[in-house]
């Protein structure tokens, strides 16, 4: 891993942290702010996937992870109030929620972007395959 890759991982971690804080603040402000922030994150991911902007898509994915962690944090019950099987159920629900925001949500958005992407234009020039005569005459100078 080179320095550029390490820097990009640090940028993605910082983006996840920033959106975790932003989503936590939006949970405090109200459900409308939460839904607005989620629409912005998912809209940025969808736009980046439609336009094939890899850097913006990665940043939107990191923002989605930060948002998912804030959802887990906001809805989590303090572990002192539950015990035994209920605690395991809460951990499983947290894992499912985080799995949705990390894997399922971006996967569905990518599938939607693939369906919305226009088909390639049929008039684009395509190189014709080589004929048998050309293949027979092909030499090292070609």
Describe the structure.
By secondary structure, the protein is an all-alpha fold. Helix content is 76%, strand content 0%. Helix 1 (3-29) runs antiparallel to helix 2 and helix 3 (54-75) packs antiparallel against helix 4. The two termini are 39 Å apart. 20% of the residues are buried.
Protein topology:
Layout (H helix, E strand, L loop, with lengths): L2 H27 L1 H21 L2 H22 L9 H32 L15 H6 L5
Low-pLDDT residue spans = none
Tell me the quaternary state: single chain
Report the C-alpha radius of gyration, rounded.
23 Å
The secondary-structure class comes to mainly alpha
Give, in order, the helices and strands.
HHHHH
Our estimate of the beta-strand percent is: under 5%
How much is the average pLDDT? 85
Large-scale geometry: elongated
Biggest beta sheet attributes: none
- Percent helix range: over 70%
**What is the terminal-to-terminal distance?**
39 Å
Topology, number of strands: 0
Number of helices: 5
Short description:
The protein has five helices and no strands. It has 142 residues and is an all-alpha fold.
């Amino acid at each position: 891993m080179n320095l550029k890759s390490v820097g990009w991982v640090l940028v993605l971690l910082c983006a996840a942290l920033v959106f975790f804080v932003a989503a936590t603040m939006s949970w405090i402000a109200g459900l409308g702010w939460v839904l607005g922030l989620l629409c912005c994150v998912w809209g940025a991911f969808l736009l980046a996937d439609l336009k094939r902007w890899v850097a913006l898509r990665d940043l939107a994915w990191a923002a989605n992870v930060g948002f998912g962690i804030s959802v887990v944090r906001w809805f989590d019950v303090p572990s002192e109030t539950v015990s035994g099987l209920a605690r395991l159920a809460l951990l499983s629900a947290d894992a499912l929620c985080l799995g949705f925001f990390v894997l399922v949500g971006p996967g569905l958005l990518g599938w939607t972007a693939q369906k919305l992407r226009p088909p390639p234009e049929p008039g684009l020039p395509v190189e014709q395959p080589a004929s048998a005569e050309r293949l027979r005459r092909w030499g090292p100078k070609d």
